[in-house]
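As described in the Methods, two query proteins were run sequentially through the folding procedure within a single session, without resetting any intermediate state between them. The first query and its resulting C-alpha cells are shown here.
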Amino acid sequence: MYKETLSFLTALKKNNNKEWFDKNRSKYEATRAEFLVMVQNLINEMQKFDKNLKGMEAKQCVFRINKDVRFSKDKSPYKTTYSAFIAPGGRKINLPGYYFHIEPGNQTIIGGGLYQPDPEQLKKIRSEIAYEGKKLKKILEQKDFKKIYPKIEGEKLVKIPKGFDEENEFSELLKHKNFFVMHTISDKEVLDGKLPKLLIDGFKKLKPFNDFIHHAIA
C-alpha cells in the first residue's frame, strides 16, 4: 500500500500541474482510497483510548489534496502529502488533536496538540501553565514522550507575555505561541509494515498532552 502512495506523491512533486494530475487520476483515487481506509482504521483503534473520537469518520479528518493558492507565492495546485487531523469535529476544528501526513523523502510526520490557538485559547493555556505548569512539565519530560516528541514546536516570545509574573518557574513554557509537537518518520519506517502501530503508539503517548490543553481551554 504505502509503496504506491510514496511513488505517486514522489511523481506528483516532480509534476505538480493539472495536466499530469488528470492523466494520473486513477492512481490518485486508488491511493487516496487506501489512505481513507487507513485513517478510519486508526480512528477505530484510537477510540479505545480517546472516547472523544467516538463516531468520527475519516472523511471528516482527511485534508483535500488541492491547495489554496490565493495568498501563496507557490502556485502549484496540489499538496504533495496525504494528511489528516483527527480530533472531535474533524480537520476544521480548532481544538487539540492528532496529526499525521505521509510524505516521501523521509518527511512523514506524526504529531499533534493545538496549532495556532486563538488569543483566548492562548491566554487560557498560559494561565493553566502559570498555576499547573508542573503537570505539563511532567508530561513533556516523561521518558517515552520525550523520546518521540523532544520539544514544543513553533515560535516563542522573547519575553514573558504581559500579565504573567516574570519570576514564574514555568516562564519558558509561557513564552510558547503554539502548543504542538511532532516526530519525523523515515520512508523505511513507512514501508516496513509497522506504520499503523507506530502511529497508534505515538498518539497514545500524545494523549496526556492533548488532555492538558483540552482542560485549559474548556
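Immediately afterward, the second query was submitted; its sequence and C-alpha cells are:
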Amino acid sequence: MSAILKINGTKKTFDEGLPPTLSELLNNLEIDAAMVVAEIDGEIIERKSFAQTELKEGMAIELIRFVGGG
C-alpha cells in the first residue's frame, strides 16, 4: 500500500507505506537528524521528539539542513 507525504514542497510516494516516525523518515532519506530542523504542518518539531513523532499520510514536512561554510 503506497502513501504520500509532501516533503519540502514535493510529493513523495512511499510504495511500502510510510516510515512510522520522523526519525525513520530521516533514516530513509539518509539525512543526519543532528543536522536538520524539521517542521510538520507548520509546527517545528524538537529534535528530541523525532523518534516519537508519528507520520500520517498527507502531512507537509519541511526539512532545513544546516550547511557549513564561510
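The helical segments are 22-28. We note this only descriptively and draw no conclusion about the first query from it.
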